[in-house]
Write a structure and sequence with these properties.
Helix content is 29%, strand content 5%. The chain has 112 residues and is mostly helical. The chain has a domain of 58 residues. It has a two-stranded antiparallel ribbon. It is globular and about 65 Å long.
Amino acid sequence: MARKHSRHGPYDDPDRGDPVPAVAVQCWLCGRPTGETIVWHHPVPKSRGGRDVVPMHPICQQTLTANFTNSELQRYGMDVESILAHAAVRKFVDWVANKDPDFTASTTKKQR
């Protein structure tokens, strides 16, 4: 009968050093480093043919979906500068700039 656990565990590698720290990914909208929770957002919605994804904070994605329809996001595409020109989004990005990467709060409801 085979052993349930080997004498030398699968992780006994003498050449293995310290774990490599993960590189902080920048949020597509606000430019801050992301925290533990990363949302992979489609700038062009999947329903409108979007395939590319970008890393974002959950609160940044909530702000986008609260301020823009899918049709508007399709028109903006990957152009983050045009999105930042929108007054409500610019106000949000300026407000969230000094917050912790894992900061979360309730956002406004959709303005439709």
